[in-house]
Predict the 3D structure of the following.
Amino acid sequence: MCGIVGYIGKKRTSKLLLNCLRKLEYRGYDSAGIAVFAGGELKVVKCKGRLASLEEKLCGESLDGTMGIGHTRWATHGEPSDVNSHPHLSRSGNIAVVHNGIIENYMKLKEFLLQRGYEFVSDTDTEVVAHLVEYHYKGDLVQAVTATINELEGSYALGVICKNNPEEFVAARKDSPLIVGLGEGENFIASDIPAILEYTRDIYILEDKEVAALRKDQVKVFDSHGIEVKKNIFHVSWDVTAAEKSGYEHFMLKEMHEEPKVLKDTINPRIKDGLVELDNIKISTEDLKNIDKIFIVACGTACHAGVVGKYIIERLARIPVEVDVASEFRYRDPLINDRNLVIIISQSGETIDTLFALRESKKKGARVLAVVNVVGSSIAREADDVLYTWAGPEIAVASTKAYNTQLAAIYMIALDLAYKKGSIDIETYKKTVEGLKDTPRALEKVLSDKDAVQKFAAQHYNAKSIFFIGRGLDYALSMEGSLKLKEISYIHSEAYAGGELKHGTIALIEKGTLVICPMTQDYLMEKMLSNIKEVKARGAVVLAITQQKNIEEVEKAADVVIPIPDVDSLIAPIVAVTPMQLFAYYVAVQKGCDVDKPRNLAKSVTVE
Ligand code: F6R
């Protein structure tokens, strides 16, 4: 949520900032702005709307100085407008600030500053930071920013430049991500790695309440007491093309097409001689005796992966699993203790609700295992154990490939726990391992048959409401299918357990209502066929997704059937989700929606 960048060096600053911001636009696109120190002046250009509007506004204006900061916004305090756009200036206009996060005590700080004659022009919480830095500024920007952050409550990643400090700009963070990029004769800050990967692969990951002072040939990092901190350089190994569209119309389409590859990357290195080996995660048989309950905590799509995880872990490892939405978990004083394992799932590793849930779990003595995609992210750094999903950068706001890899990771955790606990017979173990290894091949087939999904989407993109129903693992999958559809196509959608629909929601089914039914669970087939009949009797049009072997049977009940290869029922969610992702994608494209940047959303949700 919100992307910030900063630069000091010799390159054409405004062009560079815009280039970096383009790679961060997935974090918010309500407004954009830059502040550049040029010709002894601090110049700010900002406006409501996407980066393209800012580029239009900048047209002809030369803002090429030696340092600058930039921002792309997902609005929290104050509507998207020119005046609420970042950067925000201090009273004198000498200090400019970009911010990602929420300053929770901004009202109190605003009151303090108003009493001292400061005037506010925006509705944002960020403006207090600009004024407060100025209030503390006595010629040393690092000292002023340090004094400021010591008064802030909430979350922030900040970039601050000051007209009186032409050789240096300052950055700081707490609970919102921020990295420092180390170049030659130039240095950077950014909310995320893709923004600066074109310029450098060496970075510092800032920790909470650290303050970085960037000069063109030097970066120093201090703690909140002003003591210099020695940082380790993190070298980014992945390639810049991984964060580009590479000829696909949308990132979302590209990312779905990457699913077979990223599943291979996530699964294959962890299967050795037919056994699952989870990197350095050492949950021993002895440790397992002390674990009487597992919590899976996450948000959105990652939480839906957790619901699949509940079914799989309970079935294979026979340990009770509770799945929680992170924003609820944290505030309900959860009953967790040192006999619990908490599995945190997050693509970005920066989702603030999930991060706080992790901290709450650790505070209460639980062991925390994180399934994370972004190496070095806050959740990865704070968890006791980390299992990375090797999905590569996910740029589209709607998560696709990350979900498939989250499932793969959870299956491997379930297998590992089950094996150590002795709750799985060797045949099921082997079959599941083989099934996992086979998912990339099955997905290649699903993707090569995508035209059938596109054709069906073209017939139904005008639907007002679409239901997803399923039983068991297919119910968990339905939740994700429904979320994908609504977030990018803006069609109302609900996911229901097949057997639950008739307890109320079936009242909404009328002639022509589209109902999508994943049907991959052999032992529930008969029950689902009955549920299809129930909705069809009320006029519904039914699309079923099932293994090739079931086609004939399912075709007797459903109007249209999308086949997936004959994967085992237990493994099926990893494969069957993709036709639903494709359906959401093609419906959104057909409706002319902005698939990669759906309205009101942003990736990496760093506000509560
Ligand atoms: C939906 C989506 C979100 C995220 C959620 C958690 O397509 O992407 O629901 O899954 O915001 O994000 P992470 O996984 O980064 O913690």
